[in-house]
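User: I'm curious whether this sequence folds into something compact or stays loose and floppy. Could you predict its structure so I can see for myself?
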Amino acid sequence: MHVLGIRNRGGDGTVEQVVDRVVDQLAQRGRVGVVRYDATIADGTHVHEPATIGGDVTYDLGADGDWTATGTGMSVEDALNRLAPECTYAVVVGVQNLQYPTLVVDAGSSPDATDGEEADDDTLLATVSSPHDIDDDVVDAIEEAEPYETLESLVARVKQSPSADLAGAIATFTGRVRAKDDEDDAPTQYLEFEKYEGVADERMASLEAELEERDGVLAVELFHRTGVVEDGEDIVFVVVLAGHRTEAFRTVEDGINRLKDEVPLFKKEVTVEDEFWVHER
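Assistant: Here's the prediction. I'll summarize afterward.
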């Protein structure tokens, strides 16, 4: 699922028009989920810049959805996790510091204008002044960014395989950030991953194809996050759809081993005491 953030700097109703325009554009390519962040807390005080992604959201399935949940107590992350298995796109409205491509709506600005801190924000896709500034280039740019995937979204994808009727097993592996190897180790705060652009994606796709050529293996999905992944968060998923459990388990194990050995990904570890690129040690 590809994620686009939209936040308002102009203070008028233009942002809703931009959201409608974006949803209409995206809906031509796939199902769209919409997550709206509500920064109003219980006593009615408005929190202008929430420090974390959380709080109540309005969460629906976009143009072709048939229900809406408001005041659910879900965080934005919870809502994205719910949408990922069902949607091609998610539009997140009103979240600061979202680590996905973001449009800033400012009715008083010229298109693509940036200033101050936003000029250094590598997630900023564009500053737009009206819905007419939204075109296919915006949609294309969203699809170039790393998608939002969960174990559930990858399992849902393999279940859609044309060969799913022949499947008797789905095996998965999830790798996560552990705080420490031993009790005496300095706790890890986060890992940061970078990939060899182009080469890593090409090698991942080739590896999926090679694994799918095995007898009894029907579909394979591999996904590895990049950027900052904090302690306790998921890093990598391997999902295998197979005729029987034996080939499913074997392919999952081979898949994660070959991914780590063959796909050019570089890992920085940041602990409470130190930081270092793992390949340099």
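Summary: DSSP finds six helices and 14 strands in the chain. Residues 41-54 have pLDDT under 50 and may be disordered.
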